[in-house]
């Protein structure tokens, strides 16, 4: 195993000499999909929590579809399905975008992540204590100020425990990227296994890298929860 690590550790961590691979690609997939999904999920969560069915209905349909179908199927649709459409491969920009495996993978991951994050944040928005809203309204806050200064900060903090689990699940979901020929950790492990037939060692290294990333994520989210959710703890007299 020591020889295997010594020979292939650059592939697992950052590069095969020509392209980025392994840990760098996995982290890029995770961070890019989480950041893009978060930015899309916040406004969609506000719409999802709306009492107006014409506003919340389309968002509900979107989250229902993406949470109700396997991510693997969504990835295949983005990677091969959309490109089979005539208007996609005949349009210059769309053709260039969907020819790139990384673009297709990030699109599928972002849309899936956004759907789950939207429901998590929308649930936290609905659970905002009405007393907080009444107090803000008593100060004469506009609806925009109410959301940006009271509802969203409170809801996003309370959503942290659930959202941290979703981020970890998204990390696990990045293992599907190898099916689109994206050279993530699992793709490297499969290539190493094919080259050496050292199955246990090849996949064992991959498992260790994923476990290390999860440990860092859990540690980081626990620190954030301790700091941002301190106001929920019972206060001493």
Automatic annotation (TrEMBL):
InterPro entries: AA_ABC_Transporter_Permease, AA_ABC_transptr_permease_3TM, MetI-like, MetI-like_sf. Keywords: Cell inner membrane, Cell membrane, Membrane, Transmembrane, Transmembrane helix, Transport. The chain crosses the membrane at residues 20-46, 198-221. Residues 23-218 form the ABC transmembrane type-1 domain. It comes from the Bacteria. GO terms for biological process: amino acid transport. It is a multi-pass membrane protein. GO terms for cellular component: ATP-binding cassette (ABC) transporter complex. One of its GO terms (molecular function) is transmembrane transporter activity. It is found in: Cell inner membrane; Cell membrane. The HisPMQJ complex is composed of two ATP-binding proteins (HisP), two transmembrane proteins (HisM and HisQ) and a solute-binding protein (HisJ). The HisPMQ-ArgT complex is composed of two ATP-binding proteins (HisP), two transmembrane proteins (HisM and HisQ) and a solute-binding protein (ArgT). Belongs to the binding-protein-dependent transport system permease family. HisMQ subfamily. PANTHER family: ABC TRANSPORTER PERMEASE, HISTIDINE TRANSPORT SYSTEM PERMEASE PROTEIN HISM. This is Histidine/lysine/arginine/ornithine transport system permease protein HisM. It comes from Trinickia fusca.
């Amino acid at each position: 195993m020591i020889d295997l690590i010594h020979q292939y550790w650059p592939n697992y961590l950052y590069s095969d000499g020509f392209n980025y691979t392994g840990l760098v690609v996995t982290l890029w997939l995770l961070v890019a999909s989480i950041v893009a999904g978060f930015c899309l999920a916040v406004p969609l969560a506000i719409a999802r929590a709306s009492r107006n069915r014409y506003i919340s209905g389309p968002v509900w349909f979107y989250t229902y579809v993406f949470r109700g179908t396997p991510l693997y199927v969504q990835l295949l649709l983005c990677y091969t399905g959309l490109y089979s459409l005539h208007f996609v491969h005949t349009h210059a920009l769309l053709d260039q975008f969907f020819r790139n495996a990384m673009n297709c993978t990030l699109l599928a991951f972002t849309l899936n992540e956004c759907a789950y994050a939207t429901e998590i944040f929308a649930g936290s928005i609905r659970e905002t204590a009405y007393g907080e809203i009444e107090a803000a309204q008593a100060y004469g806050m506009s609806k925009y100020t109410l959301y940006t200064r009271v509802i969203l900060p409170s809801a996003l903090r309370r959503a942290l425990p659930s959202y941290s689990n979703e981020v970890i699940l998204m990390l696990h979901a990045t293992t599907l990227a190898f099916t689109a020929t994206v050279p993530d950790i699992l793709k490297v492990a499969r290539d190493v296994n094919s080259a050496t037939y050292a199955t246990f060692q090849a996949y064992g290294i991959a498992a260790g890298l994923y476990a290390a990333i999860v440990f860092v994520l859990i540690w980081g989210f626990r620190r954030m929860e301790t700091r941002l959710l301190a106001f929920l703890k019972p206060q001493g007299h």
